[in-house]
Amino acid sequence: MERLKILFASSAVAPFAKTSGLADVSGSLPIALEELGVDIRVVMPKYASVANGPDETTIGKNIKVYFVPHEDYFVRKELYGDKFGDYRDNLDRFSFFCREALERCKRENFRPDIIHCHDWQTALIPVYLSTLYKYDPFFAKTKTLFTIHNLAYQGLFAKEEFPKMGLDWVLFHINYFEFYGKINLMKAGIVYSDAISTVSPSYAKEILTKEAGCGLEGVLKTREKDLYGILNGIDCTVWDPATDKKISKNYSVDDIAGKYVNKECLQKETGLAVDRDIPFFGIVSRLAEQKGLDVLGEIIDQFLSLKVQFVLLGTGEHKYHVLMQKMAKKHKKNTSVNLKFDAALADRIYAGCDLFLMPSKYEPCGLNQLICFRYGTVPVARLSGGLKDTVTEFDAAHDTGSGFTFQDHKGKDLLAAIKRAISAYRDKPQWKALMARVMKLDFSWRNSARDYIDLYTDILNRGS
Ligand code: ADP
Fold first, then answer.
1. What pLDDT score does 1 carry?
2. For the chain, which end, N or C, has fewer CB atoms within 10 Å of the first or last residue's CB respectively?
């Protein structure tokens, strides 16, 4: 059988550029697919972080990564916007990227069976294949899969920008691009792709509802039979406390003592009292409403008045920066707030904390809880989307469960889960068993990569 040929088009790929989980997925899923025999290549914009290097590199064993160069568009401090908001030429930037991704395939003579697109930044690829490239024999057999990593970020632009995409105005229509008078790239991606997937089975169901559909639930319903939910995995060689060079001491499930060294080092680093027995909570997150910071805000004062320590690492909305700074000032003794993006500190938090807060309002998949499991750090999580599919409530009587969970998006329910976690933490043997259990969970890409191969194959077998 011929090898499946996949072009993986993404606006962010770790380790080259990362602002969120999309980059983790784009940097690790292709490697898992290659291991299963897929001929896969990756294409991403040539951002400032790679601007001085060549237009091509490799990851995994031999996966070509094509960087699309454009000095004006991509050599900037951030990927999508700065403190003043989204870059005003994002439609120019990403329509250019989508065109170039297709042109690059032709120049490299790589005829993909499937172009696997991710989020609004690549949504124009399926559109272009069905319009500008419709009669191009090079792509005659190419199909598309569009993966939604977060439905809330849709790529909305003013109607007046429509000509920038080089498409016929007839497509500015409610059945294609139009969304309440604006251009909506996510919508077009959903309409034009051969299949759509999202990053957990639960989120695939949730986005069909008004509560989580972000206004696109109607369009998604029309594509329901082509909509799949495949859980994200993590690269267990990257996220591994036994080999992670960024943490203070390596450890593993068979030799957990190093975790306490990491706790002590993190306490010192963050200026908190060195205390092995105090429950140490962490957060590493974009500071956005999605992450449940309002619910945390309702009870943060009560939470920090408990006998706990808390370290936060994150950047995002100004109001949350203000809230966290205020709390750090008020609860100096047990709180460390770090308002920045810092990959190394993130690892030290995963390794050094006992517990991790994820009170998300919604969570398409969430990678933090999966990373935490690897490091023996137990999540306190709201059961939404991927959190529902990966975290189960701790049950002391049966020695089961992997975290402390709550359903209603309410401060009091989060606080109750935190209190259950603290009381479980006090029983040392029980806690050790819980740590060992979560560290043994397997959320590697292996299973999910197989699901993607099945889906690619299914799309190809459908015919046109
Ligand atoms: P999302 O994609 O919604 O931001 P995920 O949980 O899927 O959330 O992925 C978040 C990824 O981004 C994780 O790898 C996490 O470590 C990383 N991350 C988020 N904020 C920061 C930060 N301030 N510093 C370092 N890493 C961060």
1. 65
2. N
Give, for ligand 1, the residue of 119, 284, 373 to mutate: max count of ligand atoms closer than 8 Å to Cβ: 284
* CA 166 to centroid of ligand 1, rounded, Å: 35
Give the distance (Å) from ligand 1 centre to CA of residue 342. Answer: 10
Atom of ligand 1 nearest to the CA of 350: 16
Alpha-carbon span 52 to 79, nearest angstrom: 16
Mutate to test the pocket of ligand 1, among 10, 13, 19, 24 (most ligand atoms within 8 A of CB): 24
Q: Whose CA is nearest to atom 22 of ligand 1?
A: 341
Instruction: State the amino acid at position 308 in one-letter form.
Output: V
State in Å: Cα 283 to ligand 1 middle: 10
Q: What pLDDT does 188 receive?
A: 98
> What type of residue is 286?
R
pLDDT (0 to 100) of residue 305: 97
pLDDT at 462: 87
Nearest atom of ligand 1 to the alpha carbon of 365 = 7
Correct CATH for 257-439 of 3.40.50.11540, 3.90.1170.20, 3.30.70.60, 3.40.50.2000: 3.40.50.2000
CATH topology of domain 5-233+445-461: Rossmann fold (3.40.50)
Which of 122, 70, 75 lies closest to 98, judged by CA? 122
> Separation of 21 CA from ligand 1 center, angstroms?
6
Q: What is the mean pLDDT of each run of 10 residues along the chain (464 residues)?
A: 93 95 96 98 98 98 98 97 93 98 98 98 98 98 98 98 98 98 98 98 98 98 98 95 98 97 98 98 97 97 98 96 97 98 97 98 97 98 98 96 97 98 97 97 96 98 76
Q: How far, rounded to the nearest angstrom, does the alpha carbon of residue 145 sit from its chain's CA centroid? A: 18
Structure tokens at 364: 């398409």
| Cβ–Cβ under 8 Å, residues 372 and 379 | yes
| Pocket residues: Cβ below 6 A from ligand 1 | 20-21, 24, 284-286, 313-315, 341-343, 346, 365-368
Where are the CATH 3.40.50.2000 domain residues in the chain? Answer: 5-233+445-461, 257-439
Whole-angstrom distance, CA of residue 389 vs CA of residue 382: 11
Q: Could you tell me which of 381, 372, 329 has the C-alpha nearest to residue 352?
A: 372
Other CB atoms within 10 Å distance of the CB of residue 290: 18
Task: Determine the distance separating the centroid of ligand 1 and the alpha carbon of 24, expressed in angstroms.
Answer: 9
